[in-house]
Specification:
- The protein is mainly β.
- The protein has a domain of 291 residues: Neuraminidase.
- The chain contains 2 helices and 28 strands.
- Strands 13, 14, 15, 16 and 17 form a 5-stranded antiparallel beta sheet that branches.
- Strand 2 and strand 3 form a beta hairpin.
- The chain is globular and about 45 Å long.
- It starts with 8 loop residues before the first helix and ends with a strand.
- The relative contact order is 0.15.
Length: 417
């Protein structure tokens, strides 16, 4: 769908309050990716395939059957492949808890969808994982990384390559809601607040062997996205935590070898909320620095904050917090990737009379160089979903849900170079 309001993109940049002195070598040039067969559906995500380009995934539903699809683009935004991964009529399709794909160190693709484990339990669903060893031509038999067997929530997944054919997965796990103690409350068995949500992880290999199962945190926020990044020989995970008195700030944990270390709070925002805000953090590592980006509530208003540090330990040791000064109130729904010597940030704002997909650049010092809206999806509320971004440092691809010219839900795609 063409968007006339975006023709003045670079003019808008000059008036946004986040603009600072820009370095020409990191200023992205934005272009919409126009495909002959626009992906129809929603819940898009994107992954980098090193030395090849990007892999976009999304879900489409027709006559109560949902399919998970993939699309390969090269670094110029040209389609190089396309296919269907799997489909089913018992899937859990949700605006915030969405599939994704990871490319492993040996080149395998791994992806997942969410499948209901009991028709009578609306909040009961499992993660179903498949692998392709031939770049999407064929897919393995699906398995679940969790083996608790409870008819509870397993979702909000993050995935990352863990060496050779190994994949590290982490997810929010509701198995404690199936315990007898959870049933003594007035809540239903699968109410998000009836029992502590846990954060768990496991490693999967090419033979579908599950190992290194670990409980990272015994009590977390129940429905916020998680994110992971590798830094040298460590893996970092960020997520929204939860205390007994309902403080739901962002925590980080480090994994070295096969075990996770105890988590720490990134910054004491003090956001107290009795319920899940469905708004998680994002993390990226590049050029010897790591960044965590997250939404929080300050003085009755949503704000976007970030920290930058030069080591994993520094990220876990109360790094200096920065807050974006924005011309439009953000809804959050953040993502971030490394970009040149700094980082790209994306989020949803509530500019003018409709939501907008925003992008900003941080330089190597962690300072905002500029920011601008790149799309106005003509959607409202939850339908705007979560923009997702992948990058090799010089090219980036952003995807988001939007409406086509005929009102059909489609996937918007933009290339930044």
């Amino acid at each position: 769908m063409k968007m006339p309001a975006l023709r003045s993109l670079w003019v808008l940049m000059s008036v946004l309050s986040v603009v600072a002195v820009a370095h020409a070598d990191s200023r992205p040039i934005f272009s919409r990716v126009e495909l002959s067969d626009t992906p129809t559906g929603g819940q898009p995500s994107v992954a980098l395939e090193p030395n090849r380009g990007f892999i976009v995934t999304w879900q489409s539903t027709k006559q109560e059957v949902t399919a998970l699809n993939w699309l390969a683009l090269n670094f110029d935004g040209e389609q190089t492949g396309r296919g269907v991964i799997a489909q089913g009529s018992n899937w859990f399709v949700n605006w915030a808890d969405t599939p994704a794909l990871a490319v492993l160190d040996n080149g395998d693709w791994v992806t997942f969808w969410l499948e209901r484990n009991d028709p009578s339990m609306p909040e009961g669903y499992d993660i179903r994982v498949v692998r392709s060893t031939d770049r999407g031509a064929t897919w393995s038999t699906p398995i679940s990384p969790h083996r608790d067997g409870t008819k509870t929530q397993h979702g909000f997944v993050s995935m990352i390559a863990a060496g050779n054919d190994r994949l590290l997965m982490a997810w929010l796990d509701g198995r404690r809601a199936a315990s007898p103690a959870a049933h003594t409350s007035e809540h239903s068995e699968h109410d998000h607040e009836s029992a502590p949500m846990t954060l768990r992880s496991a490693v999967l290999d090419r033979a579908n062997q599950i190992s290194e199962e670990f409980e990272i945190d015994e009590q977390t926020c129940s429905c916020c996205q998680t994110d992971m990044a590798r830094w040298a020989d460590q893996t970092l995970i960020v997520y929204r935590d939860r205390t007994d008195n309902e403080i739901r700030d962002i925590s980080i944990a480090q994994r070295s070898s096969t075990r996770w270390q105890p988590s720490t709070v990134i910054h004491n925002d003090g956001w107290q909320i009795e319920g899940c805000p469905v708004n998680g953090p994002a993390i990226a590592v590049g050029s010897g620095k790591g960044l965590v980006f997250w939404p929080t509530f300050v003085d009755d208003q949503m704000m976007l904050r970030y920290v930058v540090a030069e080591s994993p330990e520094a990220l876990s040791n109360e790094p200096r917090m920065h807050q974006l000064q924005l011309p439009a109130i953000p809804s959050g729904r953040v993502d971030t990737v490394a970009w040149h010597d700094g980082f790209l940030l994306t989020w949803i704002s509530r500019a003018r009379d409709r939501p907008a997909v925003e992008v900003a650049v941080l330089n190597e010092k962690g300072q905002v160089e500029f920011g601008a809206p790149i799309a106005e999806p003509a959607l409202r509320g939850r339908s705007t979903g979560f923009p997702r971004i992948a990058s090799n440092g010089n090219r980036a691809l952003v995807v988001w849900p939007e409406l086509g010219s005929d009102g059909t839900p489609v996937v918007g795609v933009a290339l930044l170079r």
